[in-house]
Amino acid sequence: MTNKWLKVALMAAAIATGTSIKIDAETVLYVPQDDRPVSLQYTVDTAREAGMTILTPPQNLISGKNYQGQADQIMAWVEQNAGRADVMVLSTDTLIYGGLVDSRKHNIPLTTLESRLKRIESLKARNKNVRIYGFGTVMRSPRASGGGTEPAYYAEYGPTIFQIAALQDKLDSGSLTQEETQKLMSLQASVPVEYLQDWFDRRQKNMKINKELIDETRSGVFDYFALGHDDTSQLSQSALEGRYLSKYSKDIPAEKYGSFPGADQLGLLLMARSRTDESTEKPTFSVIYPLGGGGKTLPGYEDQTIDKTIAQHVEAVGGTMVTQGKPTVLLAVNTPLTTSTGESESFENFPMISNSTNAFVDRIQQAVDSGVNVSVADIAYNNGADNTLVSAMYKRDMLYKIGAYNGWNTASNTVGYAIAQGVLLKTMSPEGHRKMLTQQYLDNWAYQANIRKDIYRMQDSIRTDNVRYSGELNERLESYLGERIQDFAEKYLKIDPRTVKATFPWGRLFETDITVYDKPVVPLEKELRLKREEEARIKAEAEAKAAAEAEAAYKAKQTSQQQTVAASANTTFAAQVQATSSSSSDDDSSYTPAVTTVSQRPTYSSNASSYPVGQCTWGAKTLAPWAGDYWGNGGQWAASAAAAGFRTGSTPQVGAIASWDDGGYGHVAVVTAVESSTRIQVSECNYDGSGTQPIGNYRGWFNPTASRGTVRYIYPN
């Protein structure tokens, strides 16, 4: 018996007996659509726990939040490593455009795109015994988008472009009204033509590539190809393109090609499909719903009802639907009471007593007790768990008794993961199974449905944008995330919080990376926070003490100056200036005045009439009548004073005139207090440049060397 058929026999035995068995399964060369956890790490973790050996390209080549995927280098890596693999699961978005996000933003010539596609065909020709499963996407047409995942103009014009595409979809189907025709023309005129041209040109390229991928599927390059519809709706450009692609591919059998909503689930789904193709027993699926919308639920971000999406995913994984007997996987699909799904962070999503939910959980519990592998697909809300459902499962101690749980992003994402994990569960160890469930509960239940809205509120107090934030804010929010996740893990899942780490891998609040370790190797975020707070408290106390000491020193100096003025028995400003200057001389030991000797001191008027009223020069002359007449603009005063025989220097003194030369008019003020050469107070006029500002102290303590250019001081003789 060959190694391959030994694997098949072991897997068949596991399925027949309902046991979990770890086998030396196939080696899978996997190219993800980007490095988001759902595309890369979660997929790889699940597959490895199921016994697969996974080969992935160097992560620095894979598309990320802030960098493009290196399509040509990744293909070169694939070509070099293809001989090591039994199976290849390949994102064609990565191999052709660089990645999923790159497929929406590229300006790559069609000739280059087609050349990259041909390399996939050549890859199959050189590796005929390696099964290739490919997956790509119909370019999404979202209502709005930010955070750099669409062309820059989409942040402003995205909603309008979406409306244009929706009306064009109706036009294509022949159902556009006259009023809607006028609206379409108006909307088209409101968007710069170059933006519309860019968007439609890219879609046209991608559409042609998708047709050629279908051709390659038809010719046998792919053992199976899945074309996902990324974030779409019933009326959209994606839906329009999907109709034409369905017509183009209608001759390809369902066991070779599928096209359905979703994108992020496709990698794991096709890994499960590779497992199915190796098995002599094909998986069977049954579906149960709670009271309410059931299979006719139309999820958000998708263009078809959930029953159709489930059937297509079952076909894609190589399974069949059954209504009788014990299925390989029982899909427990949690749908809302209505046929429309809400958002998980909404106010309505809180645990409550629900007869329909309790009845649904009763059915799940009965199946589990009967030995059925139950995989829960929680789609009642978009982007997170239904708190009522998961809380009911928690109260019955069922969280780790089911086979799989998923409740993330779109309904198709959830369904695809639920089906794939249900298939792969048979070869998981109990530890691997528990880790898989823990990861999903912490991401879908703890974060998406509960913690995320708290972090949104926390971020709103800092900044209004809930998509992007700086590294400093990221660190603050990420620390809060880590602490909350660890607390949740300990309280509800009864696991050591030191085994759990949570981050924002793409710097946005939409998704997290939850890592569950086998051993307690992660610091407690709560302890780190308390340590930071204690360090901040000690630092604040030290700074407060230093400020108090500085303030006391200043007040003492001020008192000394006032005493000196009082002792002079002279109330004229000139006498006070001279007195305070003398009292400060002992404190300014660094001052070495530059002295210019003149044979005769000129005399000056004691009023400020030689300077325009309201200007800084007028204010300085008013405060220091000893200043000369007609010294020019403020920036010229130091030079004029030196020429007139006054001492000038770079050390501030109380009573001195500060002259700043900024290359223009400059500025002058009279020094009223000195703490150091970089910390003084002044009295001045026209600080704001209005020409109407009266004389006063407007700046308090400030650094004169960092204000209005180079500063020189004029000292009274």
Output the keywords.
717 residues; alpha/beta; Rossmann fold; 4 domains; 5-stranded parallel β-sheet; 21 helices; 13% strand; disordered N terminus
Brief overview, please?
This protein is of the alpha/beta class. 44% of the residues lie in helices and 13% in strands.
What would your notes on this structure say?
It is a single chain. The radius of gyration is 37 Å and the shape is elongated. It is built from 21 helices and 20 strands. Mean pLDDT is 87; it is low at 1-24, 466-470 and 568-603. Strand 18 and strand 19 form a beta hairpin. It has 4 domains: 26-278, Rossmann fold (3-Layer(aba) Sandwich); 282-428, Rossmann fold; 429-523, no CATH class; 573-715, endopeptidase domain like (from Nostoc punctiforme) (endopeptidase fold (from Nostoc punctiforme), Alpha-Beta Complex). Helix 2 (41-49) runs parallel beside helix 11, helix 3 packs parallel to helix 6 and helix 6 runs parallel beside helix 9. The protein has 717 residues and is an alpha/beta fold. A 6-stranded parallel sheet has the order 2-1-3-4-5-6, with helices on both faces. The chain has a 5-stranded parallel sheet with strand order 8-7-9-11-13, sandwiched between helices.
The domain tally reads: 4
Alpha carbon gyration radius: 37 Å
Provide the β-strand percentage band. Answer: 5-15%
The best one-word shape is elongated
Largest sheet, spatial ordering of strands: 2-1-3-4-5-6
Under CATH at level 1, the class of the largest domain stands as Alpha Beta
Largest sheet: 6 strands, parallel
Distance N to C terminus: 110 Å
CATH topology grouping of the largest domain: Rossmann fold
Total number of beta strands: 20
- The oligomeric state is single chain
